[in-house]
Amino acid sequence: MTSRFEPSTHWQSQTVGLSAQQPVRVFQTQHNDERNPRHDHDFWEIVMVISGKAIHEIDIGAHPIKSQQAIIIRPGNFHSFHTCRKLNILNCVFLPSVIENELAWLLEEPAVGQMLYHPMNTKQLGSTVINCSRKHAQRCLDSIKPIISSSQSAHMPVSRSNAINRVATVISELAEQWAGQHDLSEECISPVVYRTMQRLTEQPEHPWQMDALADQVHCSKAYLTRLFSAAMGISPMAYLAQVRAEQAAILLRRTLEPVSHIAERTGYPNAEHFSRRFRDHFLMTPSAYRRRHQKYPTY
Questions:
Q1: The domain spanning residue 279 has which CATH number?
Q2: Cβ proximity of 214 and 227 under 8 Å
């Protein structure tokens, strides 16, 4: 039987005008009742809710959003807004390279790493939601609003470095709020932890073992486990499971590949093991996940 599956909407960096020369863009949008297309994207997104209400739907559930909240969506995560009631938002989007290169130093700040890379689960519902004080929300808005006028006018444009610095300010402000709302370790993300994250993210299909991973980042297994767990709130292997599940979800949405092939490409020994681990993460089997997203073809 021929599958009716079509890949879901995927917004690429070029869709929103991101490039190496302009790695940050900011847009102010309003929604009232309409549903914006369910989509994923290959860039980071920070949504600042200025006013109004809506339901933010992601892969494993939905949650209400309101003014003075910020939502951080990692590259590859699937989401949309619906049941909007005069929703007025500021969208700040930026290339992954901004975090990986120019702002890698920010990961040394307590709370930033856990805020950006915390594991998806039923409590957090797959996206980082931060309740901001009025003061912090206004600081975030004031920091990134100039980028809007910069993109709309050739006069007095915000430079590339200025835009990146403004993103750094917003992330720092949000991390301060995040830290006040969560029980966090005082340890920040060390270079060892960041290198570990890079290895696991770049090669999720590799049959990683803790001994080999520790050798890759030049430390002992016990030290790596303690350092990573303190900084991220989960073990290296639990983080790898998250990376594999999220990358498998992208392949399920965007391709017609058999589940067994996706299991192999994302580091699982067989389809049965893949199905169990995927269900732990998304609360449904890979086949059920794909069927769910058949309802939302490419726009």
A1: 1.10.10.60
A2: no
Q: Which of 222, 167, 171 is nearest to 192 (CA)?
A: 222
Q: Are residues 32 and 168 in the same domain?
A: yes
Do 109 and 210 lie in a common domain? no
pLDDT tens, residue by residue, 208-249? 999 999 999 889 999 999 988 887 778 999 989 988 988 898
Residue 73 sits in the same domain as residue 18? yes
Q: Is residue 2 part of a domain?
A: no
At how many degrees (to 10) do helices 160-181 and 134-152 cross?
160
Q: By the 8 A CB rule, do 79 and 58 touch?
A: yes
Q: Provide the mean pLDDT of the chain.
A: 83
Residue 112, C-beta contacts closer than 8 angstroms, at least 6 positions apart: 106, 171, 172, 175, 188, 189
- Whether the full predicted model's pTM is greater than 0.85, yes or no, is no
CB atoms within 10 A of CB 189: 26
Of 181, 216, 249, which marks where a domain is finished? 181
273 and 137 inside one domain = no
Q: What domain range includes position 225?
A: 191-232+234-293
Q: What is the pLDDT of residues 114-157, one digit of tens each?
A: 788 766 543 444 578 899 999 999 999 999 999 986 555 445 56
Q: Are 60 and 35 in contact (CB under 8 A)?
A: no
Q: What is the CA radius of gyration of the chain?
A: 19
| pLDDT of amino acid 194 | 79
d(CA 79, CA 36): 9
Tokens of 108: 């040394």
